Amino acid sequence: MSIIPKEEILEIFHNYNRDEITIVTLGSHTSLHILKGAKLEGFSTGVITTEDRDVPYKRFNVADKYLYVDNFSDISKNEIQEQLREMNAIVIPHGSFIAYCGLDKVERDFKVPMFGNRKILRWESERDLEGRLLRESGLRIPKKYNSPEEIDGPVIVKFPGARGGKGYFPCSTTEEFWKKIEIFKDKGILSKEDVNNAHIEEYVVGANYCIHYFYSPLKDTVELMGIDRRYESNIDGLVRVPAKDQLGLNVDPSYVITGNFPVVIRESLLPKVFEMGDRLVAKASEIIPPGMIGPFCLQTLCNENLELVVFEMSARIDGGTNSFMNGSPYSYLYHGEPLSMGQRIAREIKMALDINMMEKIIS
Ligand code: ATP
Which of 97, 219, 224, 329 has the fewest CB atoms within 10 Å, measured from its CB? Predict the structure, then answer.
């Protein structure tokens, strides 16, 4: 089965009551500022949640409606879709929404209008497609090694699936690669299949900048909304241990994301930052039309030569946008107000409703 045709989604939207649109998302990831932003723009909001996870939405009072499910993976069920359509819902897909619904189902079964381009989601989740889009956009990405035998310097070894950096390890030689694989297999962190699918890339020593952009199809602008850096366990704890003691600890580093810090980048790098966003938007519209819609993110490491090396991309709202729920220095520059990514999305939807151009922003 192929991706739900856009015409089918537009037909569903056509039957909506436009005066009673509800902005809905799954209660996780970036839902707090998605819902808060929608409320600030005057929309009714809804959260899909389980009984045991509704606390933040109630305490922060960001949702007008609650849609309870037994498990997050139930979001694709027909009765939930039915309820969403009855609510005139526009769903904002985020990383957890896609993970729990399942990419196949998002593409083929989830017949509720979603903000953004459904077709591009596979391009951020499959490493080969992601690499192709970044390369063809002319962005600098880490050098890829085709086999462990090719390792000739510091590399990071990654494994398939969204695992938030779990099981990833750095190494510098072929021998070290196999030694670490055995240790991780013994610990049950990696399976034989994982090892066959290991992705080996240049370890970039640099400062982390995760750059959050918003592409407005209505205004044809690429906006820089904010930047964060990651707070990862155990690597960010490990670096607090003095080097002489680190060796004695015998702890393997891991890169599991636990939080984010807002950051700004030196001003002289901003031309490059904008150029990177512009290039990605242009290439995406060419190879995955209509291309990027709304939020996207480039996760980069800035090396000592001030090159921004992109090691990961999100083609939807990224978790790091939580670091500027009340706006970032960049979003402030545009609007002179503290604008979150969630509110920016809602503003685009509001504008599309006003000028009757919803077909530009939903799929
Ligand atoms: P998520 O999807 O949750 O972002 P992931 O499993 O896709 O995680 P990555 O984001 O690719 O994992 O990497 C996790 C972390 O590993 C990064 O935040 C960074 O700290 C480190 N890392 C990734 N690639 C490199 C690289 N090429 N050089 C140095 N460090 C890297």
Answer: 219
How many whole angstroms separate alpha carbon 130 and alpha carbon 73? 25
Residue ID of nearest Cα to ligand 1 atom 12: 165
Side chain identity at residue 298, one-letter code: L
Q: Which residues contact 120 (CB under 8 A, 6 or more apart)?
A: 284, 288, 291, 292, 315
The CATH number covering residue 47 comes to 3.40.50.20
pTM of the complete model: 0.95
Indicate whether 71 and 187 sit together in one domain.
Answer: no
Surface-to-core class of residue 20, CB atoms within 10 Å of its CB (0-12 exposed, 13-18 middle, 19+ buried): exposed
pLDDT digits (tens, 9 = 90+) for 276-334: 999 999 999 999 999 999 999 999 999 999 999 999 999 999 999 999 999 999 999 99
Number of domains in the chain: 3
Q: Give residue 300 CA to ligand 1 midpoint distance, Å.
A: 9
